[in-house]
Amino acid sequence: MENQTDLIIIGGGPAGLAAACSASSCGLEVAVVDEQSSPGGQLFRNIETPLGQSLLDDGDRQRGLELVRNFRAAKIKYYPDTVVWGVEPNRVSCTDKDGARLLHGACVVIAPGAMERPVPFPGWTLPGVITAGGADILLRSGGTLTRESSDPVVLAGNGPLLLLVACHLLDNGVNIAAWLDTGCWPKRFAGGAFMSWSFLDAGYMSKGKAMAKKILGGKIPFVTGVKQIRAAGDTRVERVVYEKGGKRHEIDAACLLRHEGVIPRTHILRSMGALHRWDKVQRYWYPVTDDFGATSIDGIYLAGDANYVHGGDASIIKGTLAGIDVARKIGVITKGEAAFRSEKHLKQLRRIRIARSFLRYMFAPHPDIFGVPDETIVCRCESVTAKDIRKIAKEGNRDVNEVKLHTRCGMGPCQGRMCGTPLAEIVAAAQSTTPDKVGNLHIRQPFRPVSLENYCRVYTEEPADT
Amino acid sequence: MTRSRSKSIPDHEIIIVGGGICGAAVAYGLAARGCRVTLIDAPTRTNMASRANVGLIWCQSKFLHLPDYARWGFHSARLFPELTRELQKISGIEIPVHYRGGIIACLGEGEYDTRREYIENLGQVLDSYPGGMISRGELEKKLPHIKFGKEVSGAAWCEEDGIIEPLALLRAFKVAFSKLGGTFIETVAYEVQPRNGGFLVITEQGPLNCERVVLAAGLANRRLARFALPELPVYADKGQVLLVERMPYVMPIPVLGVSQTFGGTVIIGFRHEFSGHDTGIVPEDVATEGIWATRVWPELGKKRLIRAWSGLRVMPEDKQAIYSTLPGHPRAFLLNTHSAVTLAAAHARYLPDFIVGAGLPDVAASMTLKRFGYDCQL
Amino acid sequence: MKNGLQPTVTLTVDDKEVTVPTGISVAAAVLGHLHLGCTCVHPVDKTPRAPYCLMGVCFECMMEVNGEENVQTCLVSVEDGMVVKRQLKVPEAK
GO molecular function: any one (chain C) (predicted)? Predict the structure, then answer.
């Protein structure tokens, strides 16, 4: 059959590409489905163009180029510009420009990567407010955040991406008016205790140091202990208002970037009912997998930051391991060969995990960031406010799914991708408990919109033999 | 629980197990009569019928074989305007609702004729029937902003049908219940045990005792009623539906199987499957529903499907509601219906009297467990 | 164009022609190159919205692309001759 293969990989980022290359080098037939028009994912976006390369440091650029070269060289079926909206064991449903199609495979590796933790605040729906990652994508698309480079840009939040974006903005001569830090200092000190392990990963640390040096040199006004951030403006952001030490401050801004760390993208696996675990420091759910990325569902693997956020180079290793284990599971290589092929990668991954354990604390989200004012829109799709959620939670509804039914929070097209995290935090706070105790939004397939006719056609027509 | 307990005075006068639309309607009605009621509810994955509902108030073209049940539905529909007015006033919650009739679209002449025959027979059995068949032209006048597919030959029409926002109705019942002094506990009921003439309801949060217990837990009644009933003839009837993205609001009169919600999204679905408690979505199944819907309303084809889900209806074996005491336990009540929305107004009005001992209204008097061969006191 | 080596494409956004690098998304072109700010008006609360995440999560970048409404434009790459319209009006109930 035309659309039958050994392994279908969802996502063409570092993990997906690495999984494809390693599975292919074990002799498997592989297909990669990706939303972007060229391989690379978020980290190596557009890496085959000068623009995409320009903002990467040397190490990342080399790693990315090598990965993409290997991917292009291997005989891998590649479906770019393709949106996946359904995954079942052995079957992936997706749409490209020509319509919907079904792909069949013995195993599936899901590698959707990570996303920025969605943290609502008043005014966050105003044009001009974007995530730090979103800002970086604009820069890497050859664009700018504001019309004029002298227009003030404000950074706010806590997390590794802010460092990276700040460097890129400085490189582009952007006027950074302030950096409003919302980090949790007690946890940062706790993170310091783990930092001694970071010698295991010297390359990564020197990258961090270089960024820090550049930022200090850039003389950005750095404000710590910031609370209650809000974006103000009429039809777009004009000012950022915040509290520090009980006092209200205000600063002009043409663009506000908010970043509160990175969390795994779990939508696909949650729609399939895979087992997840709660990280109480990073306050996120992550899928339970073995070292190779095998999930609780037979034949379904997870690779990359969607498993647990360790960063791009770790994603390449995780992808590689998943590809090897799929080859073992299908029976193309023996257990012994799989162990031989994976030994070095497993060691490297363990090293990185230990070395980066301090990051878990260093960039832990401050629990206060979800203590947003009542008028804050939490669910962007359905315009549901924190007040709506708190009211229903106080009527005795303890499960987020009950709150969702009565507020519509999470019922829109994004299916809770944006509001699921804050919904759980706000409901938990209203019940004086933690988010892991208030349930998890039920995610349904199709997990991305698909036209009704495409959906119906793909499941009712006989597969075309071409 | 720190309250001191005496054997003769139970903590709760009436406990209702199950806070779906049925349980909440009865809880509200009892609280409005001044009873001391505790409602407990925590839906499990297979007990979400009230939460996976379109919200049709639907009387037409059904129950030819059960004329009393058909009459009971019509009677409830007529009580609805008063109920929603009262509920909105007490709860302060706005309940979107239309009492403008309902439509069953027919594809081709064959469907039209079959439907006409059924409705004629139903009209004869019921003496009076507030509806009938309408031509395609009349259908287009009723819903002028929908371009029906070319196969649509006409429709069945009934002026007493309607559509309500089911989650608003459910919430209004619960909030009004609380405002009238009722107690709501979100917890799972494990088991009911007869105790000292009353009942002990074992829950996740500990045991609760009461004088009267009302089982309104849908499919969970099968296990909760086990202390009195070896077998409850109620089955899971799976429906799988598709949800289409928000569109301008054009359907104030609902079309069965492809209804626009008050928010503008469209719910497609009409399947009935008896497959145990399976709640999986089978894309091949829902796709057939989607194809039917685009034959009725072709514009939907280009619209985006935003999710599919399934729900388990609570279906008594003979499709008729069960309102009954349990055999040997005149103060334990069992309520089971698959039309909890349509019947909500009748439930809120009449079932509280039944639970405090006044019996059922004549039209519903035959709906006890007696019809399944159980000996139960009215 | 800052980078001479980068190939470009030309598309139309709200009747205005614009040339941008290949391989970028429609949302990035409208936000980062044209600086049009608002890309759609929210169907529920009618407030102006714009792409927030640019990576397929937030569904705030919905625009009309080549006649198709509500396209998640951060997941669509720019193409020569593409016609994009911002969704600045909410379709009213009839």
Answer: oxidoreductase activity
Instruction: Read off the tokens for A366.
Output: 């401050």
Q: How confident is the model at residue A173 (pLDDT cuts 50, 70, 90)?
A: confident
Buried b (16+ CB within 10 A) or exposed e, A392-420: bbebbbbbbbbbbbbbbbbbbbbbbbbbb
A326: left (phi over 0), alpha (psi -120 to 50) or beta: alpha
A172 and A198 share one domain: yes
Q: Which residue of C has its CA nearest to A417?
A: C57
Range of the domain at A157: 118-259
CATH of residue A396's domain is 1.10.10.1100
pLDDT digits (tens, 9 = 90+) for A58-95: 989 999 999 999 999 999 999 999 999 999 999 999 99
A110 with A148, same domain?
Answer: no
Domain end position, chosen among A259, A289, A320: A259
Task: For residues A126 and A41, state if they share a domain.
Answer: no
Angle of helix A400-407 relative to helix B166-179, nearest 10 degrees, comes to 110
Does A115 contact C at CB distance below 8 Å?
Answer: yes
* Neighbouring-strand partners of residue B212: B14
A391 touches chain B (CB under 8 A): no
Q: How far is CA A75 from CA A38, A101, A229, B45, B183, in A?
A: 16, 21, 50, 44, 65
Q: Is B278 on the interface with C (CB under 8 A)?
A: no
Angstrom CA distances, A300 to A119, A268, A323, C39, stand at 30, 11, 12, 37
* Sheet (strand B102-107) strand order: B102-107, B152-158, B131-135
Sorted by where each starts, the structural domains of chain C and their CATH numbers stand as 8-85 (3.10.20.30)
Domain count, chain B: 1
CATH number at residue B39: 3.50.50.60
Instruction: State the nearest Cα–Cα gap between A401 and chain B, in angstroms.
Output: 10
Task: Judge whether C45 is closer than 8 Å to chain B, CB to CB.
Answer: no
Supply the ipTM of this predicted assembly.
Answer: 0.94
pLDDT over 70 percentage in chain A: 96
B250–C94: do the CB atoms touch at under 8 Å?
yes
The range of the structural domain enclosing residue B175 comes to 12-53+167-233+318-372
Q: Return d(Cα A224, Cα A179) in angstroms, integer.
A: 8
Q: What is the pLDDT of residues B126-161, one digit of tens each?
A: 988 999 999 999 999 999 999 999 999 999 999 999
Work out the end-to-end distance of chain B between its first and last CA atoms, rounded to an integer number of angstroms: 35
At residue B365's C-alpha, the angle toward residues B363 and B367, to 5°, is: 100
The chain B residue lying nearest A447, using CA atoms, is: B307
Say which of B175, B184, B294 has its CB closest to residue A452: B294
| DSSP string across A302-341 | E-GGGTS---HHHHHHHHHHHHHHHHHHHTSS-HHHHHHH
Q: What CATH number has the domain bearing residue A71?
A: 3.50.50.60
User: Is the Cβ of C17 closer than 8 Å to some Cβ of chain B?
Assistant: no
